[in-house]
Amino acid sequence: MTIDRLKTPTVALGTGAWGDSGETGDGYFGSPLTRAGLEELADKAHAAGFALWDTAMVYGMGRSETVLGEVLKRYARDDYQLSTKFTPQAAGTGDDPVADMLEQSLARLGTDCIDLYWIHNPADVARWTPQLIPLLKSGKVRHVGVSNHNLGEIELANRILGEAGFRVEAVQNHYSLLYRSSEDAGILDYCRDQGIQFFAYMVLEQGALTGKYSPQNPLPEGSSRAKAYNGMLPQLKALTDKLASIGHSQGAAAADVATAWAIAKGATPIIGVTKPGYIDGLVRATSMTLPSDDIAELEDLAIAADVNTRGWWEQAMDV
Hints:
- The protein is of the alpha/beta class.
- It has a domain at about 10-170: NADP-dependent oxidoreductase domain (TIM Barrel), CATH 3.20.20.100.
- Helix content is about 40%, strand content about 10%.
- The protein has 13 helices and 8 strands.
- It has helices spanning about 35-50, 65-70, 95-110, 125-130, 135-140, 150-160, 180-185, 185-195, 225-230, 235-250, 255-265, 275-285, 290-305, and strands at about 10-15, 50-55, 80-85, 115-120, 145, 170-175, 195-200, 265-270.
- It has an 8-stranded parallel barrel with strand order 1-2-3-4-5-6-7-8.
- Helix 1 runs parallel beside helix 12, helix 10 packs antiparallel against helix 13 and helix 11 crosses helix 12 (about 275-285).
- The longest helix is centred in the last third of the chain and has 17 residues, at about 235-250.
- The radius of gyration is 19 Å and the shape is globular.
- The two termini are about 30 Å apart.
């Protein structure tokens, strides 16, 4: 059985954007992401006490893991935690696809163990979950979680692992002011009751809740983010204005407040980081206290916006 309990950070650092095309000038130690810039970011995160880095094989089909592994070589392995994922939709055809994908991730990350290994999407819970057990027994995986699973699937995964003396130790779902389906479906309550850490991704809705974008200053045309969010920016204005107002009163930005909201709800936000300055925002967010009145007003404004930001890859949680 796992002896050490999962260390649950206040926030986790997301590296999905590090898995770009790999071409010079397109972010792969080129522009805008340079090795020096990412190392500066990592140093700043390390100094601030942020130690859990989240990636996945499918982020750039291995490129995010490769870049992260290169950047973290500058630290002792005990100085950081690694979170990566098995994605059933990308499984190989070998006898043990989960172990195979794990070995590939270990090689790219330059490590012999993963602190937190996830089943990325449910696909077939009864098929994939048992394959985590030998990885836990081997020590190559220290803790396991499930991502994009609904409540029934989480409970099933927990039963399967429980029969072998293990448990689901973390759940990772899309959760933000605009998308609270995991809360509505009882997943947050279940995690709280079971002592499972709930990790929230897309807390900032790909930038739509940062206050940077508006109907007058939309997300860059031609991007997938623009297609998803630009049409709803007029409906989000009251909410983003309130986020900015609360932030201003506390010497913070709108994005910091959206992150602090998720923390106040009991979640560990996974915030994508590409610039050293993003760490300053996380420091502000983790030191911020949101009054209950502000939380209630933000949630009311989010409901009034009446938008649906569920990703194409996500199942409905109320099933």
